[in-house]
Amino acid sequence: MALDLNSLPRLAPGCRLGENNQQRVLLMPERALRLLGPSLEIIERCDGRHTVQQIIADLQRIYSKAEPQKVEQDILGYLALLQKERALDFGS
Amino acid sequence: MASTISSPLALIAELTHRCPLHCVYCSNPLELQSRAEELTAETWSRVFQEAADAGVLQADFTGGEPLTRTDIIDLVRAARGAGLYVNLITSGLPLDEAKLAALVEAGLDHFQLSFQGAREEIANEISGTRSHEQKLRVLQWLKRHRIAVTLNFVVHRRNIDQLEEMLAIAESSCATRVEFANVQYYGWAFANRENLLPTRDQLDHSLEFLKRAQERLQGKLRIEFVVPDYYAKYPKPCMGGWGRKLMLVTPSGEALPCHAAKVIPGLVFENVKDRSVREIWKHSAAFQKFRGESWMQEPCRTCDRREQDFGGCRCQALLLAGDAAATDPVCSLAPLRPKVDAILAGMNAAPPAQLFVKPAWLYRPNPT
Question: Three-state DSSP class for B112?
Fold first, then answer.
């Protein structure tokens, strides 16, 4: 299912950020994901106020040395993974 | 990108063995612990803090039925206050709207509601109580709260043909996840095994249906299912490995690597009243017993899969092979696989008149 670049991702109910041993983690019903660098930047922007397109643009700016296409692909892949886990809702 | 912790490091808090249901598939031990033995909320509070300090991310409240604890709201608050993600694994009884609101307010993150069937008659037969209607009510109340909701349908021969109806219940609810959990055989389920195992045909049919449903609902409803491992080719990586990811604490405070571990003779279990969570995790003889590979027998010892499934389940090896260090007999490579094959063959050859009639169940009692 292709992601709508204009949609606004937001953490689903019961999915939240936590901290353990000075590490940020994304807590979900059956899994936890360690958040480092890019993944942390992405999740912090999943607040219902950034479009997918804006998240991509922000990260391309932050990681300006990386290939913009690769950044876009990685972000779309990561968001799709979280959507499959039902950790994200996509608003319009 | 983020590295995945493959399953959360979790504390399974078995708060009580009391339960208003009497499910014939219950995986609690046959020797249930009494109310008098239960840890206080104060002790649990300390345990939650110790668990968080030791790196645990999630507390899974279970039992018996955790809602039978009159201090359940304090317990949720204490776990959340310690920084843990709080998961409630429940039958939905006893519960009313006000109590649900209070649980959410106290910091509950995830509500996992069990179902014994899609219809009242079978659900009540399996649970030995009138519980199905209440669960449907709980589903309505859950729509008004912002927590994660998972429905867990326990599946076996008596209800596996109702998957479509069960899925319909899940689709009309606010659940984002649904688990179709085929019974695994421990405790009361082991005692009732002959009447719970699905036929091969039933299983094949169910897998077809569930795979199609997963595709159709991807991104909307996450569908997970577990095959009964008697029918699997390789064993499950039980608990993510003995003493690798999970610690269970019984109502009286014993720290176990898994819910069935007390079937294994010769293990001495420490109590959280006497020693900290971190100390027990690192040093308890019971936790050390099946860590690493030195305890493994062949074929596990030299098997390519040993780091994937750890030789399967120790408790199942004990129950089926009489030896907790043996290769889990459900594994196709296990010397004792023929024993499991014989169980399945016998069952699949039985006439329908015998297989599909309502059995004389052994119901799980409620401890005092």
Answer: strand
Sign of the torsion angle spanned by Cα atoms B87, B89, B94, B95:
positive
Q: Which two tokens stand for residue B117?
A: 């069937």
Q: Which two tokens stand for residue B112?
A: 């996992």
Where do the H-state alpha helices sit in A1-92?
38-44, 52-62, 68-84
Q: Is the Cβ of A70 closer than 8 Å to some Cβ of chain B?
A: no
CA B48 – CA B78 distance, rounded (Å): 7
Residue B49 has pLDDT above 70, yes or no: yes
Q: List b or e across B130-168, with b for residues whose CB sees 16 or more CB atoms inside 10 angstroms.
A: ebbebbeebbebbeebebbbbbbbbbbbbbbbbbeebbe
pTM of the model: 0.94
Question: B50, B76, B85: best mutation site toward chain A, by most A Cβ within 10 Å?
Answer: B85
Give me the pLDDT at residue B107, please.
97
Q: How far is B134 from chain A (nearest CA, A)?
A: 23
Total residues belonging to chain A:
92
Please write the tens of the pLDDT for every residue from B155-193: 999 999 999 999 999 999 999 999 999 999 999 999 999
Tell me what the mean pLDDT of segment B113-125 comes to.
97
The alpha carbon of residue A64 is apart from the nearest alpha carbon of chain B, in Å, by 16
- Encoded tokens for B314: 């120790």
- Which two three-digit tokens encode residue A50? 């950034």
* pLDDT tens string A51-88: 999 999 999 999 999 999 999 999 999 999 999 999 99
Rounded CA-CA distance B190/B352 in Å is: 22
For B288, the 3-state DSSP assignment is helix
Interface of A with B in 35-54 (CB under 8 A): 35-40
B330 vs B314: CA distance, rounded Å: 11
Structural tokens at position A38: 């890019």
Residue A2 has pLDDT above 80, yes or no: no
Q: Show Cβ contacts of residue B157 under 8 Å, excluding neighbours closer than 6 positions.
A: B195, B196, B197, B198, B199, B202, B355, B356
CA distances from B150 to B147, B153, B221, B287 (A): 10, 10, 10, 30
ipTM of the complex: 0.91
Nearest chain B residue to A80 by CA distance is B219
Q: Taking the CA atoms of B142, B143, B145 and B149 in sequence, report the sign of the dihedral they define.
A: positive
**Of residues A32, A37, A83, nearest to B8 (C-beta):** A32
